[in-house]
Amino acid sequence: MSKPAPSGDLAKFDDLRKIGEGTYGVVFKGVHKRSGKLVALKKISLERDNEGVPSMQLYLVFEFIDRDLKSLLDKLPGKRLPAKHAKSFLWQLLQALAYCHTRRVLHRDLKPQNLLVDDSGVIKLADFGLARNFSIPSRVYTHEVVTLWYRAPEILLGGRYYSTAIDVWSLGCIFSEMVAGIPLFAGDSEIDQLFRIFKILGTPTPEVSYFVYSHVTGWK
User: Residue limits of the Protein kinase domain (predicted)?
Assistant: First the structure.
């Protein structure tokens, strides 16, 4: 089935077509009848464990943007952005991250494919499927987050107590890719990813090593 049957609030949209699917939902493209604007609708299934209670579906409506940073870079000479555009994108993304972090939200999956770019040069965070609320003191999280090339060292080492720093690390890797045209750390495994990071940035100092040894599981 390529599109949902229009019922209830869905009847406000025309020409609904499936354009993507992920772990946490299905995305449709449609036209808002009243405004005539293209929109993206993300259908999220909310499962209930209680016997006899049916599953629920939630639809989120977003503006429709059909270009992400990865596809934009792939079309540019050398796959790199002009300096002024890279600086503009970095500034916008820092503002977006600050907005999330001040509201105690970790994105946890920043990568070029999850950054949408419209025709006016505005770049936006997308795909909050792995996002989580964080607290102080920090709580335990899974380390199976963030695409490998943009994954912070503390996650690669098995750390399960982490902070907003993991998003900042990912954004730094993305900024480097925007200006250099190639991923900064393009590892093919977690250990290879760590070796590439250490090769460029150096190995942790004894003080950092002691702290890491005390807080993460993968540091031996």
Answer: 13-220
Per-residue pLDDT tens digits for 31-78? 999 999 999 998 887 765 555 556 677 888 999 998 999 999 999 999
Is the same domain home to 12 and 89?
no
Give me the catalytic one of 14, 49, 68, 109.
109
Query: Is 109 a residue of the active site?
Result: yes
In a domain, 135, yes or no: yes
Q: Show the domain range for 116.
A: 69-215
- Whether 139 shows a pLDDT value over 70: the answer reads no
H/E stretch holding 132: strand 132-133
- Residues 121 and 51 placed together within one structural domain of the fold: no
**Residue 192: per-residue pLDDT:** 96
C-alpha–C-alpha distance, residues 133 and 100, integer Å: 10
Q: Sheet of 56-63: strands edge to edge?
A: 13-22, 25-32, 38-46, 56-63
Q: Judge whether 42 is annotated as a binding position.
A: yes
Whether pTM exceeds 0.85 = no
